[in-house]
Amino acid sequence: MIHKYNCVRIVPIFNHLDEASMALIREKVRHRQLDKGEYLYQAGEQTNNLFVLHSGMVRVFRLVESGKEQLVRILQAGDFMGEWSLFNAGHVHENYAQAMRSTSICMIQHEDMQEFLKEYPEISLKLLGEMSRRLDQSEKQATQLSTEQVGTRLAFFIADQVQGDQDQDIELELPISRKDIASYLGTTPETISRKFKDLEKQGLIQQISSKKIKIPIVDDLLLYSE
Fold first, then answer.
1. Nearest-5° angle of CA 71, CA 74, CA 76?
2. What is the pLDDT of residues 52-77, one digit of tens each?
3. Is 4 left (phi over 0), alpha (psi -120 to 50) or beta?
4. In the chain, is it the N or the C terminus that has fewer CB atoms within a 10 Å radius of its CB?
């Protein structure tokens, strides 16, 4: 069972509030449990909730004209989605949101969030900051897809997964499968496998397992150009 306190506490747009304010928000939280492979929503559906991941992992993707999946983002504990419905009544989803493992979701209805935004303007600022960050990420992804070779895109993707100030001899567990990496980078799993081998041959990474790699020097990855 999800503890409402933890659900609100872990979200950056809420965790700066005082205890009394968070208590009011927790009273409006509803919960949903998703099994692996279950959809939170699908393209064409309309929802009026802000969704917060309490635990688990959700992939957000769209279907392109060819029918292939294009991965948009991966969401983990503390992340949220559905924010567009807060500013656009009747918003219809263009993407799919699917659980990658057993996932716990906290939901806050559109009307309740509107009241919170009026009562606590700082939530609006946090929310807009996160939306701006996502827009920047989407633009960066689109630019890379149109201008960078697959090997370069993969090198940047790997480097982006490094947390903190680490720069040498890093053991990194990739957050998603190579199939999903291929979808995110707009290529095929076979091509991604080849590019992993190319990066390893050049000494930029060492493959420990299918999801775990070692990075000798992160800056070398960032400077790599195919």
1. 165
2. 898 999 999 998 877 788 898 899 88
3. alpha
4. N
